[in-house]
Structures are given as C-alpha cells and as structure tokens.
Fold:
Amino acid sequence: MGNSQSSEEVRVPESKKEVHLSRPSTSTSVSASPSAPVATSSSSSRQQSTPPSSSTCEQTPIMSATASTSAAASASAASTVAVKGLGELPARISFPAEEEKTLAHWEETDAFQESLRRHADLPPFRFFDGPPFATGQPHYGHILAGTIKDVVCRYAHMTGHSVERRFGWDTHGLPIEFEINKLHGIKTRDEVDGPDGIGIPAYNKLCRSIVMKYSEEWRKVIGRMGRWIDFDNDYKTMDVKYMESVWWVFKQLWEKDLVYRGFKVMPYSSACSTPLSLFEAKSNYMNRVDPAVVVAFPTLDDENVCLLAWTTTPWTLPSHLTLAVHPELVYTKIRDLETKRVYLLGASRLQLLYKTPEEGVTHEVLEPALTGAQLEGIRYHPPFDFFLHMRESVGAFRVILASYVTADAGTCIVHQAPAFGEDDYDACLAAGIVIPGGELPCPLDNDCCFTAQVDPWKGLLVFDANPGIVKALKQSGRLVRRENLSHPYPYCWRSDTPLVYRAVSSWFVRMSDEEKTRLEEEILPQINWCPEHVSKRFLELVRGAPDWNVSRNRFWGTPLPIWVSDDLEEMVCVGSVDQLEKLTGVRVSDLHRETVDSLEIPSARDPTKKLHRVSEVLDCWFESGAMPYGQLHYPFENKEVFEAGFPADFIAEGIDQTRGWFNKLVVLSTALFGKPAFKNVIVNGMVLASDGKKMSKRLRNYPPPMDVVDRYGADAVRLYLITSPVVQAQDLRFKEEGVRAVVTKVFVPWFNAYRFLVQATADLRDEHQIVFSPDIALCLKGDNFMDRWLMAATQSLIQFVHTEMKAYRLYTVIPRLIAFIDQLTKWYIRFNRERLRGRDGIEQQQFALNTLYEVLFQLNVAMAPLTPFFTEYVYQHMKHALPADKQEDSVHFLPFPTVRTEFFDEEIEAMVAAMQDVITLGRTVRDRNTKPVKCPLKSVEVICNDQTTLDRVLQVKDSILQELNIRNLTTSTDLSKLSRSMVPTNEKSLGPKLRGDRHKVYEAMKTLSSEKMDEFEANGKVEILGHEILNTEAELQFFYVADEADADSQFAADSNGSITVVLNLAEDNSLLQDYTIRELVNRVQRLRKEAGVVPTDPVEVFYKLDVKKSPFVAQMLQKRLNDVVSAIKKPVFQWSEFPYGALPQAASVSAVPAQDRTEFVELAVLLASLTAGGKSLSANDRKAVQLYLNVCSAARLQAALADGKTLPVEINGKMFQLQLGVNVFNSVQERLEAEQ
Structure:
C-alpha cells in the first residue's frame, strides 16, 4: 500500500487448508480534491501494494488483510447494528457492565418504589422475609434464598398484586454478644454483671453499636443481585415497637398456660454462658477426640467384684449417683486372669475388654448369666466421694433399671450423672434418686468450670479436667481400660466450642401431645411445601418436638416479661409498655435489660414486698418467630393490615429452617390464632463449596460472590442457582464454571436471537425501505407452520408458567423457560433464517419478523422475574418499536403475559414435536457414524406404530429432509423391521462393578429379552445376572432389518422409544456436489465472520483453483455457480476479476470433499470498493489506475466523481480522466456489467 505499510511474508502451509497472514500495521489514506490530481503512484508503491506470488498457483494469491483504514473502520462499524425503532445493538456486550447501567437506570427512575406506588391499590400478596444477622456478610446461601424470594415476589407483582417487600434484621442474641466478647476480650459473665464487671448498660451499648455493622454491605450485595426489597422501611428486632409485640405474643402464651419454669438438661455453651435449643445444638457437629474409659465400681458386699461402666465424659464421674442396667439384657461375671478381679458386664460386650482372645486365655466365666433385673439394687462404691452423703439421703450408689440401656455400646452398664444427661435425669427421677426440688449434683459455674464442691479441679473447664480425673482413677485402681475415641460431637454454632449437657433452670413453651396432634391434623395440611417431601421432614420434627426452651441467660435481647417474688410463688407476665407503666408507675421508651431490670412491681400478696424481673432474655428464635406481628407492631398498630394479610402467601428459606424459623412461625401462629403463619413455602438446600465441604472463609474454598458477579453478571449467578437441584431442597456444590456455562448456553444465544431480529429488520429497511413496526395481527394472518408453532408454544409456555407458579414449583418453571430459549434459537430461527432475511418475499419476511418480535417480547417479559437485568436491557431496545403510549420506563412495570387462546394449536405443537424427534434422532445417527449433516444422504425411514404421528411427520417432510440433508423420506408402522441390542458404554464404571462376570454380562446383553429391554428403557436400569446395569453404563442400539433389495445400502438407526429413525448412510456421487456446495458456502460464511462484516455490507467473493489438481470442484463451480451465489446472497467471481493489488478482508485455502479425495480452492472476501476497468483502459493502464485507487480515500474519490464529474489525475507520468461508469466503478460486479 503506502510507504509506511509493513507486512510479514505470506506462508502457505503444506496442508493447503489455510493461509495465515498478518494484517498491515499501518496504511496510508490519501486526501483528494475534486479539481486536482490526488496523488502520483510510483514503482515502489506499486511493488509494495502487489501481493507476492503463490507457490501453488499462477495468479496472485489471496491475502487476508485490511486494505485500508477506511475499510477497517467500515468493518468495525458494521459490528454495531442500528435500526430505527429497535435502537443500536453491538455485536457483543459485557453483561456485568450492562447490569451496572441498568442499576443506574433503576436508581434514576426510582423504579422499585415506582412499581410499589403503581400497585398500591391492587390486591395484596403478603410476603414474610426472615431476618438475618447484620454482623456477618451475605454469602451464597443468602443470595440463593433472596433470589427465590425475588422471583416469586416479582411474579406476584406482575400478575396484578401489591407486594410489600420489607427487609428485616435479627439484631439480638449470641452472634452480637459473641462479637463483642471477642472484640473486648470478655470471657466470663462476671466480667459483665459481676461486682467488678462493666455492667449491663455498658455491655448492651457496645452490642447496639455493632448491630448494623455490615448493613451497607448487605444493601450493596442484595441490590447488585437485582433483588428489589425495601431497606429504608425495614424492621429490626431491637426496635421498641417490635419488642413490645414480642412481649404481647409471650403473654398470650402465658395466659394460655403454655409457659412454665423447669429444670432440664439442656445443651449449654460454656463460651456464651447460656443454654441453647436442641435445634441449635444439632446444627454444628464436629469430630472430637475424647478419653473413653472403663471404670470399676466395687460392690459393698465384695470389693473384689466390680461393676464395669464405660464413658467418654470422665468429667461427669465426680457427680456420679448411680449405675443403670437394662432389665432384660444378659450380664455375666468373669475373672480377669491378670488382675484376679471379678468383673460384671454385659455378656455381649466382652470384646470391649478382651479384643484379641485368640492370643491366649485372658479371662474365665464364673457363673451362669444374669438378667439386668437380677442386678437391681446392688450397692457399690462411687468413683469419688464428693457426694457420698447422698447414699443416706436418697439411696444413691445402687444399681437401677433403665430401658434406654442398649446391648451394642459400652459395657451395658451406664454411669448416671443426672445433672449432665437427659436420660440419666429421667432414670434417676423414676428411681427416686432425684427428687424435684431436692439436691442435684452440678458442681459447675456459669462458664462450666468446676466449683469448690470438686476441689481438686476447681476453676478448670470440664474438658480440661479430664486428664486429671483419669489420672486419679488410675491411682485409685478404678481405671480398667483407657483409649482415645474420635466421634462426632455437638459444638456451639457461634463459638465453635464443645457443648456441655447440663441441668439448668429455664422457661419453656409447652409442646403437649394435644398441640402436636392439632398441628399435624389441622395446621400442616394448610401449608403447601415445595418441594413436597420437606413436609414429611417437618411433620417428623413436630411429632418429636420437646418443649421449647425460650429463655437465654444473656444480656442483649428481649427481656422475658416475667416479674416474680423471691419465693417464685407470685408471678406477673407483662404484655405491653402501657401495662408495664400501670404496674410500675414508670413509662419507658426502651425495653432492654438496662431499662426494665430495675423496675419493680408491688406484690399483690404483700404490698410491702416487690416483684423483680427474672434475669433471662428471650431466645432470638422466639423473636424471629414473632416477626409477622413485630414488623407491624401488632396488635398495637396496623391491626387491619395484619389481619388482611395473615397468613402470609409466601415465605422461603433454607432447609435448616425446618427446625428453626419455619418451626417457630408455625408454633406461635398455631398457639395464637389456630392457623399457620404462611400458606406456601419454598425450601432450598445448602450451597456448599465445589469439594462438597461447607464454604469457609478460612479455607478459601469458594470464589467470593461479588467476584463472580463482576465476571459473569448477577443474572448468570441467579440463573445458575435457581436452575440447580438446590431449589428442590438438595445440596449444591457451587462451581464457577457452572455460572460461566449459563452465560454461554443461555444469555449469549438469547442475545444473539434478539440481535438477529435487529439485523433482519435492518435488511427489511435497507432492501425495501420499510421501517419495522410490530403488528401482532400479522402473526394470525400467516400460514407458515413454524410461525404458528412458535406462537402456540409460547401460549403453552405461559399457561404452564402460571399453573406451576401457583404451586410455587420453580424447579419445573425455570427449566421450561430456559428450554424455550433453545426452542427459539435452535429451531425457529435456524429454520427461518433466510425467510427472516426476506428470501421468501416481503410478506413472508414481515410475518416471520412479527412472530419473532412478539415471541421475544413475551419471553423477555416472562423471564423478567428470573433475570431482571438482561430483560431490562432487551426491553429498553425493543420498546422503541412500540407506539410511545405503549412504552414503559421498565420491563418490571409490565404485566406478566397472559394466555391468548387464539394462538393455541395443539396439533401444530404435536407435529413440530414429532419433527424435532425425527431430526434429533437423525442427527444422533449421523454423529454416531461420523456423517456430518453437510454430507447429503439418500434416504431416511421413520418407523412408528402410531399412524397419526407418521402423518404429522409427512406434513413436515420437506423441513426434515432439508435439516438432515437427505433426499427422500418414507414412513412405516412395521416394527418387525427393527431389532434392539444392549451395548456397554461406560467401561470405567462397569469394569469394577462386574469384575469376573464382565464377559458373561456382556454376552447376556447381546441376547437380552425384549421385556428386559423395555424395563431398561422405562426405568433407566435393569438387572442382568445379579448386577444392576444403569442407563449411564449401557444403552440400547437399534438395528434395521434390511430387505435383500437393499444389499448395497448401509443402514443405521436410533429410537426414543416411540419413534425410530433409520438412515441410509451409503454414499451417492450424485449428492456429493450438494455437499461440496454446502462446504464452500460454509467457508465463505466463516470468512465473512472473520472479516467482521454483516449481511448488509456490500461484499464480493472470489475463488481460485488449479483445474488439474481440483477438477471436481472446478466442474461443479462451472455448472452450479449460481447455486453458490443464491446461498450466500453475494456475487461470486473467479480470481482473474480480483482488483489488482487490493487486499481482501479475509481469505483462506479451503479443503473440500470431492469423490474419493480432497481438493483445494482459495476463497477471498472483499468489501466492494472502487475498481478500475472499462473498454477504454488497456491492461497495463487498468493496473496502474487500480493501484492508484487502492491507496486513495474511496469516500473522497466518490465525492469527486459524483454526478458524472471527471477527475484528471497523473499516474506514472500519464494523465487519466477518471469517470464513474466509464473507467472507474463502485464494484467488480458493476464493472463486469458495464463491460458486457
């Protein structure tokens, strides 16, 4: 080109399949004047602009490079399609970047609040949002639940409801206190409320200061995920109005006699100094290594005879009171030959002491077996004497009976410390060793350290005392055996410290058998659980629920509103601020402990005495369960609003909330109103790391959510989560590549579908000067079966979505919506691509365009609840084709699509479904036999025993033949033409499973009965020679039984169970030319894409080949060049017509099939540009002028030559009078037409 141009040498690979060329680093653009010569070409410039010769062809080879900056700019501009009415659309977009723009648009238009204002007077859809703690940052579990809630609430809004969406915060409880304790180094209760402690007012002030620590982070993350929820009108469990409603709820339970004070063994957190609920105790198990010891208890009658007990909690032995045996188990006496002592233990548990008896005789059985009942009452010496006095006071240290003792653990004799085990407590209570109100050995302080009652280990945490206790047992001769045991153990969910089961005084809500029956028979049937199987899990929890411990020995929480006398004989429950003022004479504006603890209520029995508030606060689960009332300050305000919206229409949380929030909501609503708190609930599973472990910031085993959003967009994360099994209450192993796959498999095709619509409307505008304007009436007028199918399928989709969403089955709705995108892109657009571009005429083009627009629009609106960002992006483009009065600021202001019955057509849907089955099966057969669709085949036969299905296939015969690239199609109901056989497909799985039976099973597969194959097809598995074979390990292959007349044919088949497709794979030379043309067209289309041109760009195609080396292709092009031109819709010329010295936009050497060998053809794509020619120019002059045109600005030259003007120029010392249509032409095609 110009002197500044540089290019690497062109190299032709030996394979001849591709020429790899570099683009020029720079190119020269020459300005032109209408009245003066523009430039003078020189020999040096001519040499540089002339491509080097090819080693394989006589003529100049084709180069893949940009000819000029103006051409490059043209190609770049072509990547953005702008159509009046549909806006400007780039070739590709950054989904995250566009989402940020959408967020700005929503912010600018106040979209969420505006949507609420528009629906304020519509029927309410009541949604309850469970409150999270703001002391932690949102994770994938929160994002998942939030997305589910957002989808349902958006759908409810779009179906004509007013949907209030208030965010809530759980602001009390252990999470906040634990953070403060860590921050300020507080380790014991005394450091808070002890004589030298900081005091409850100061402590609670600290708690209040961090409650909303991460609230802005929550707002940012939730907003970035596209969830519309009101953070400004939120509720907090620490607000006085909320707390007052909680007091009211508690008082209702009190007045129904459902609240009592009890002494029970509860899981207790030593780090947090408070009992936990059983739900909390079961939420955090970890493996722990504890000493497992066998301890001897010598009998009083004969100290050489010892009862043996096994325990993993040596720290409970100082508080031991009795031994328990099962009355019906068998026990035996043995003499240990080493120690000479006599041991008594369960007959089935000798292996606990003597693990390898084959090494020698270690013991002998002394007398016949005894039952546990025969051991009752035996007295013995306790391991420690700290509570020896209880032998006289309550008859401790004797054998008692207990039915919970089992024969498969320990020694079948269980050591009982009733203060540290629920079973122990119940057994000792039944035996009279524990007396209500009597002494119960529990020598621990609030932090689970031993008190002075167990002086040797005073001040030690119980677990830290284990080594000293085991050492003392050994010194006293009581230790028979010791080993370490690794076992799952409950830990505090907040502090990750091991829990201690200990007897504590707590306040309980009674879960009576009558209440459980009421829940099971009356309340739970009113709730729609999704997925349904969770209801069974919830029912089992209800049936086995213990009384609910609602009190916590903490500071930052809603105080229990109970005032009691010193002797606990007089109690008052307060249910409101007004009642508290009436009883105490003090009006309060806060209900936390620092405010109400000091308030006293005069005694009704003795006016000189006062009632004081109990020290406990309410369990924060009680507060969250009271959320329906607290968020509205019910019943003190909003009574009508609450009663109109209770029960809630919908809630959603993780499966762990079956024990937590779901449970508490139902328990409280049943007790208060005799109805459930919610009508519908979606329960999601847990989101785990990719390795199946719990996500851990410490382990860094998962990508941070916002990093993934920044890479792929929030819509992709949303869709990945809600299309996974996690919406069916199963666990999900989060994998970033899954999010990436959503982008490539859903959003890119979806975007391309809309971009294709824009391009097709550009064709309509450019070729016919018609600006596209959607008209749904045209969708009814056309008779194209694919148009009718797409409109019908859209109505079926909308109907399905409405039906399933009413049942809250997101796990059926979302896959169907995504599958429809596949139907749209891979079937409708694929089948109608040329028709949409106008190949079948303007009328058909407009029918197709209106159908595609209408369906894309309806799909976009239907997907809006799922993917709020991308649907907004598409709508903001699509709406400009609508009349101004039909345009909205947001897609989320639109109503959800409703079914239009006039478009329903079940027969069309069935017909296309049959067509899709045939095509899919045909493609499978081709793939399996390495016969690409580009290779034409002679025939296909469709076999089915249902003639109606075959009739439908025949109606779409032409489409099937075209798509499968087959000449003829026949149908048959004769199933005798088919045979089936099972073949293994997964040797990696089958090998280890079958082992030595592998050969026998494989042989049995070949002769498997028809019944067995039917079973395999129906169930996905079948048993063969005692081995279960799955459909992931084997498959059925179908074989066509050919007639003798078809001896020269090669048949292959596949079936879906109802339709069988048989292809004749035999090659036919008459079809090879079709295949070759198709290959050439594909190569040209690939070059156009590589060049960055779009269908509307003026492109010319050139080819070159060696006739001797490629005779088949040469002959085919000579005879059928028009077929190639028709397919690519662009002119095609031999290389001899290529403008001298010009550089194409893209070029390659292509290998194409030709009979029994491969032939080569060079192809090039050139943007139409000024071309020298005409009868007045000699061959040499034509080259000189062409080189001049190559380096000049095409736009300036065209302006200079406009309106028949003549431009005088001097080239190599010779003057030329350039004139359009005479010696300069706009394209090669225009030049050839003039020269004819």
